Amino acid sequence: MRVKKEVAHDFPREIGRPATNALLHGGYTRLAQVLKLSDAALLARHGVGPTAVKRLRAARSLKPKK
């Protein structure tokens, strides 16, 4: 039986499970970390497509400022 380890992250659900898993596997857990990457760097990750990149960029404007 496989046991999945839940990793805390703040990525929007709308990017999809493949993109979320690709980012987590790359060591990213915060949206702020991912937003520092170029679109090309994000698209180079297997599982992250153009729609996920667009949704990540859109999420930046939805995050409340602290």
TrEMBL record:
GO molecular function, one term: DNA binding
Name of the protein in its database record: DNA-binding protein
Keywords, in A-Z order: DNA-binding
UniProt keyword DNA-binding, yes or no: yes
Source organism, top-level taxon: Bacteria
